[in-house]
Amino acid sequence: MVSASDESNGHAVTSRTAIEAAERLQRHLETHAGQLVIDADTHITDVDSLHALPRHRYETTPDYYHGRPISAEDAILEMDMAGVDMALVWQNPATTVYGGSLDANTRTLTQANRYVLDSALRYPDRFIPAGWVDAKACGLDYTLELVEKLVVDFGFLIVKLNPAQNGYPINGPLSLAVVDRIVELGAIPAFHFGADTPFTPAEGLRCVAERYPERPVIAVHMGGGGAGYLEAEELYRVARVLGLECPNIRYVFSAKRDTHIETDLIAYQLAGEPFCRHLFCGSDAPYGRMTWNFGGFRAMFQSLIDGAAHTDARVRARPGLFTQEAAQNYMGGNFARFVAGEYRRLLAAQQPCSLRCP
Question: Where are the beta strands (DSSP E) in 5-121?
Fold first, then answer.
C-alpha cells in the first residue's frame, strides 16, 4: 500500500491555459451540480484527420459498425437529443491507428488526446476532458512522458488505461507503473473494467484500489464492457460487492446489462453515504447511443421513485428509498461534485503560476 501523501508530491497543472480551463470547469460543476445531467463515458474523434482505412469505412457506409467515430460536434447533437448537459470525453481507440514504432504510436495517441483538449476548450460548458494512454503500443517510457503531458500540460484530471483490450493485467507491473505516475501527479486513474478479457478481474481492481486507499480509482463499465451476458454475470456480482468494500472505487454505468444496473443502484442506495455517491451514468458513445441509455436511465429511476409497485421487494419495503434528488445525483450530480472536488484538490497543489507557468 502506498500513501497518497507520499506519492502526490509534485507537478500538478502548470500550463496557464490548462489552469484557467480547469478553474472554469470546477466553478461550473460546483454551481450547477444539482441540475446537470452528465454522460461519464463518451469517445470523440477528429473525423477530418482519420487514417485512410477507418476514413474509407466511415465515408462509404452510413450504417453503424463497432466504434463508428463521432466528432465533438456529433456528440453535442446527440447530447441535445438525449437531454444530456455535459459529457466526459476521451479518445476513441477504434479510430486510433498505430504506425509501428513506439515513438510514432505515442505521437498518434498524443494527437488523439489533443483533439479532446481542443474540443473541451471550444465547448467548455459541454465537455469534461480526460486522457488516454496505451503502455503496450507506446512503451512504458513514452507512456510515462505522455501521462505527464496529459496532466501537467493539458490539465486532464483523469487518465484512462485499457488493459483489457491492450493485453496486460490491470494489476501487473506495466499497469501499476503507469498508475503510480498518474497518482504521483495528483490525477485519477481510470480503467476499462469488464469481463470481456481475463486482464481485468475483480481481484486485480482490488489490488489497484488498495494500493492507493486514499485516492479514487474509476472503473468504467462496472464489469460489463464487451462481454456477453453470461460471461459477465459473475463479475457483475463481484464488482457490486467490491465497490462496497473499497470506498475509493467509483463506477461508471456504461456497456452494462440494465437489470444489473438497477440491482447496483438499489444496493448502493440502501448502503447510503458515501456509496450512493460513487455511481455515475454513461453511454460509452459511440459504442452506445446516448438517447437510448439516458432515456432508459430516466425510465428506470422513475420506476424506482414510484416504488410501491416495483418488482424488487427491497424497493417496496422502503417507501421513499429513491427520490428525485437521488435520481439527479446518479444522473449527473455525483459526477459533477466528484470532478469539481478533485479539480479543487489538484489545483490547490500547484505552485504559484508566476513560478511555473510559461
Answer: 38-44, 86-91
Sort strands 127-129 and 86-91 into parallel, antiparallel or unpaired. parallel
- C-alpha 89: how far from chain center: 8
Is the peptide bond prior to 319 cis by the omega test (within 30 degrees of 0)? Answer: no
30 half-sphere exposure, CB direction, 13 A CA radius: 11
Q: Is the peptide bond before 274 cis (omega within 30 degrees of 0)?
A: yes
Query: Which helix H or strand E contains 223, and what residues bound it?
Result: strand 217-223
Residue 328: enclosing H or E segment and its boundaries? helix 324-328
Task: Tell me the backbone φ, ψ of residue 47, rounded to 5 degrees.
Answer: -70, -20
pTM: 0.94
| pLDDT tens column, 95-141 | 999 988 999 999 999 999 999 999 999 999 999 999 999 999 999 99
Residues in the chain: 358
Model confidence over 151-181: pLDDT tens digits?
Answer: 999 999 999 999 999 999 999 999 999 999 9
Instruction: Name the 3-class secondary structure at 219.
Output: strand
Identify residue 90 by its one-letter amino acid code. W
Q: How far apart are CA 278 and CA 93, in angstroms?
A: 26
Of 261, 256, 280, nearest to 342 (Cα)? 280
Give the integer Cα–Cα distance in Å for 207 and 110: 28
CB 269 within 8 A of CB 322: yes
